[in-house]
Amino acid sequence: MSSAPDQTVSSRYMARLSKAGIGSHNNITTDRNLFGFGGVESIENVMVDETTAKEAMPYVPSDINNTAYLPFSSGTTGMPKAVEISHSNVISMTEEGGQVDFGDGSESITRQTTFI
């Protein structure tokens, strides 16, 4: 039997540690029939864990070097551990993302990092 905590316990632990709500947000935007979306301009999906959302503290960044988000390890050796990613790091990742062209270059998509 694994000594790693189950996902629900880990998720709530991470939310309390970071003082953030748990959720995920995906947004795909296209103006063409890219990957069979049939011309849909925006697809948006938001999922929130109601328990941690009630405990979440609103966050207003005041410094580019402040923490933007906390990715966590899988926690295979115990409780998950966080790494602080600053707003400056996010900007750098986004600037490096750029455009990816498909085929003859008539269609492109912007790469982006995923974060909560």
Provide structural commentary.
One of its GO terms (molecular function) is ligase activity. It comes from Ustilago hordei (Barley covered smut fungus). InterPro entries: AMP-binding_CS (IPR020845), AMP-dep_synth/lig_dom (IPR000873), ANL_N_sf (IPR042099). Pfam families: AMP-binding. The protein is of the alpha+beta class. It has one domain. About 25% of the residues lie in helices and about 25% in strands. The chain is built from 3 helices and 6 strands; from the N terminus they run αββαββαββ. It has helices at about 5-20, 50-55, 85-95, and strands at about 25-30, 40-50, 65-70, 85, 100, 105-110. The strands form 3 sheets. It has a two-stranded antiparallel sheet. A two-stranded antiparallel ribbon has the order 3-4. The chain has a two-stranded antiparallel sheet with strand order 5-6. Strand 5 (about 100) and strand 6 (about 105-110) form a beta hairpin. It starts with 6 loop residues before the first helix and ends in a 6-residue tail after the last strand. Mean pLDDT is about 60; it is low at about 25-45.
String of helices and strands = HEEHEEHEE
How would you classify the helix and strand content by structural class?
Answer: alpha+beta
Inertia-based shape: extended
Mean pLDDT: 61
Beta-strand content estimate: 15-25%
What summary fits the major beta sheet? 2 strands, antiparallel
Radius of gyration equals: 18 Å
- Count of β-strands: 6
Q: How many domains, as an integer?
A: 1
Fraction of residues in helix = 25-40%
Number of helices: 3
- Catalogue the unreliable spans: 24-46
What order do the strands of the largest sheet run in, or round the barrel if closed? 1-2
Give the termini distance in whole angstroms. 31 Å
Pfam family, one: AMP-binding
InterPro entries: AMP-binding_CS (IPR020845), AMP-dep_synth/lig_dom (IPR000873), ANL_N_sf (IPR042099)
Protein name: Related to 4-coumarate--CoA ligase
Domain AMP-dependent synthetase/ligase: 55-96
